[in-house]
Amino acid sequence: MTSADADDLVVIENLDFAHGYGAHQVYKGLEMRIPRGKITAVMGPSGIGKTTLLRLIGGQLKPQSGSIKFAGHDIPQLSRSALYEQRKRMSMLFQSGALFTDMTVFDNIAFPIREHSDLPDEIIETIVLMKLEAVGLRGARDLMPGELSGGMARRAALARAIALDPELIMYDEPFAGQDPISMGVIVKLIKSLNNSLGLTSVVVTHDVAEVLTIADKVFIIADKKVVAEGTPEELKASDDDLVQQFLSGDADGPVPFHYKAESFAKDILGEEADADSDAEQRKERDNA
Amino acid sequence: MLDRVAALGKAVLDNIAGAGQAMVMLLRALVGKPQIRKSWPLLMQQMYSVGVLSLVIIIVSGLFIGMVIGLQGYTILVDFGAEQSLGPMVALSLLRELGPVVTALLFAGRAGSALTAEIGLMKATEQLSSLEMMAVDPLRRVISPRFWAGFYSMPILAIIFSAVGIYGGYLVGVRWLGVDEGAFWSVMQSNVEWGQDILNGIIKSLVFAFVVTWIALHKGFHCTPTSVGISRATTSTVVTASLAVLGLDFVLTALMFG
């Protein structure tokens, strides 16, 4: 292991990934190093496969080629049981929160602890209350997930994600669909949890303004690979068109506004051959 | 023409792949070190939602079907002066055929569809993914207890169905139409055999339980996680499971009584 590897918790090298049987190529030659103990933001237009990236790191998807090293373990090569061992060291905050709807908030957070330890109930209760206190939901312990607002559900899910004190926590669009206050709360929580628990955080998002305030490192993904990386300051100072388009939110630029399609004229006027023959007929009529 | 051949080929391949997925799912859910302490409460919880909550529909249907057989049987048998045979007729139709088959069909509609929808929604709301990311195998945690709950509860439901049905036949035949009570029960007792009739009925029921629960879980676990996908999977569970039960019933009947 080189010293660079020791500083990076997740190292992705030369990763190729396609959905289905190669029908939809998502990544080609992706390279990424996620520094230990820092907040790393992964940004990019929607549909670029940012969530897929988290699933690849978590071993839920297998790449066609390339390596994804988590703390030195090559995730795609691990056996099922070894993968489950590594997953105990990481956790993921899903976009929807993914709380278990048939359990109270308390039981949701106690769930991973009960599954992976034989701790007595009193200790589990103490741990759960500490985690709930950290996200400000100690008073909501007896509510069912259906009774929580979107922001509260995400905070409860965050408490569950940190229940086992993971080394890596992956946030999938943590700010999506949040009102400004809960967005601010989540930004603050990500920052404070990262610092106080010594976590490594990966935040996948396209909420540029929010994430740039807390990120230590930023990757911008487009066109199946990383197109820019650096600290928020470096990216703001970048003269790359694509980076600037992304940071300032312009509708059109290197990332086109239009999904790839045939020319508009051809689409609404029919085949060009038809258009030509129409033009000839018109010309003949005019001559006549 | 070529497109049609290609579409046919794709449909066949998809079906084979689906069957393979279902097989792998079941094997991974069932094979492995049993964890009694953790799985027992889960099994009980599922037995309640799959079995106990199906009791009402099973009991009511059993009662009415028994009553109908009693009435129909009586009107036919009385023409031949053979109304004493009403007892074995009701009992044998229920124990050999209607008990296992109708229970399986009702179970597919009541519990099978619920299982598919529940698991499909767990998939759509990323609960299955989040289990995986918490290093908890969803196959062992979600699929396995539901499978065993369905497998154990359906034969019990079928026995309850047959028992209630026989009582329904008794109500109509003896209490309403005046068949001799002693004849009804004693002729039934002498004509129904433990191995040939009751045990074969239970075996049928176990086979149906296995197939219906398996189909329901597979359709839920491998559905497209959208509202349309879940609705299709739920419909498909009821249709596929019902057809499978009726087809298998013929095969089993031919093997057992043919």
From TrEMBL, chain A:
Concerning Pfam families, the annotation shows: ABC_tran (PF00005)
InterPro entries, per database record: AAA+_ATPase (IPR003593), ABC_transporter-like_ATP-bd (IPR003439), ABC_transporter-like_CS (IPR017871), P-loop_NTPase (IPR027417)
Give UniProt keywords alphabetically.
Answer: ATP-binding, Nucleotide-binding, Transport
Q: Give the domain of life.
A: Bacteria
* GO function term, MF aspect, one: ATP binding
Domain called ABC transporter: residue spans: 10-248
Protein name in UniProt = ATP-binding cassette domain-containing protein
UniProtKB/TrEMBL annotation, chain B:
State the similarity comment: Belongs to the MlaE permease family.
Transmembrane region positions? 12-31, 52-78, 149-178, 198-217, 238-257
Tell me which species this is from: Pseudidiomarina terrestris
Q: Which named protein is this?
A: Intermembrane phospholipid transport system permease protein MlaE
Protein's cellular compartments? Cell inner membrane
Reported function: Part of the ABC transporter complex MlaFEDB, which is involved in a phospholipid transport pathway that maintains lipid asymmetry in the outer membrane by retrograde trafficking of phospholipids from the outer membrane to the inner membrane. Probably responsible for the translocation of the substrate across the membrane.
Mention any Pfam family matching this sequence: MlaE
Q: How does it assemble?
A: The complex is composed of two ATP-binding proteins (MlaF), two transmembrane proteins (MlaE), two cytoplasmic solute-binding proteins (MlaB) and six periplasmic solute-binding proteins (MlaD).
PANTHER family to which the protein is assigned, alphabetical: ABC TRANSPORTER PERMEASE PROTEIN-RELATED, PROTEIN TRIGALACTOSYLDIACYLGLYCEROL 1, CHLOROPLASTIC
Example GO CC term: the record gives: ATP-binding cassette (ABC) transporter complex
Keywords (A to Z) from UniProt: Cell inner membrane, Cell membrane, Membrane, Transmembrane, Transmembrane helix, Transport
- Coiled-coil residues: none
